[in-house]
Design brief:
Number of domains: 2
Oligomer: single chain
Structural class: mainly beta
Low-confidence stretches: 163-174
CATH topology of the largest domain: Chitinase A, domain 3
């Protein structure tokens, strides 16, 4: 079966920045819905017509991937508002930030504690890979028809391209 809209693809990959530094390796196949919200449009377009066994090398500019870095998504907030033991790398859902943070912080983003100071916390609402051009070496491992449930949900259940709140030491990529 070839890849087309409304199918599910199993992919493995190596993700690098443009300097060749490995950012992520996905060795076991993960399924993504083509035509849903699981993959960037640039990846879906490149996959069209390919079958299992296909290998693709893609170069994604920031606007085709996680977007440009937006300095308006950086916020300096009082450290006293946050729990004891807060660490850099900890993430917060914007809708669940502590009471008292700036009302200007959009509630729709996930914020990473980017820096800690004695009296302040820097929250960053950008994806960790925002502003970075990426090289993606991927392999199509499987292709199947999507279920009605997956089509209705717009996802095969993969959250790789969405940052989810994590605890310190967690993995934001997958």
């Amino acid at each position: 079966m070839e890849i087309s809209q409304q199918c599910v693809v199993g992919l493995t990959w190596t993700l690098k920045d443009t300097l060749g530094e490995v950012l992520d390796v996905l060795e076991e196949p993960v399924e993504f819905l083509v035509g849903g919200g699981d993959l960037f449009a640039s990846i879906e377009q490149a996959l069209q017509g390919h079958a299992p066994g296909a290998r693709l090398q893609l170069h994604l500019e920031p606007e085709e991937a996680f977007g440009d870095f937006d300095e308006h998504l950086l916020f300096l907030e009082p450290r006293s508002l946050f729990p004891q033991g807060i660490e850099e790398g900890l993430t917060f859902d914007g809708a669940a930030l502590p009471a008292g943070v700036s009302a200007e912080i959009p509630k729709s983003a996930v914020y990473t504690v980017a820096e800690l100071y004695p009296d302040h916390v820097v929250l960053d609402g950008n994806h960790p890979l925002a502003g970075i051009a990426l090289r993606l070496d991927l392999e199509v491992r499987s292709v199947r028809e999507a279920t009605e449930e997956e089509i209705g949900r717009g996802s095969a259940g993969t959250g790789f391209f969405k940052v989810q709140p994590i605890t310190p030491g967690g993995d934001t990529l997958h």
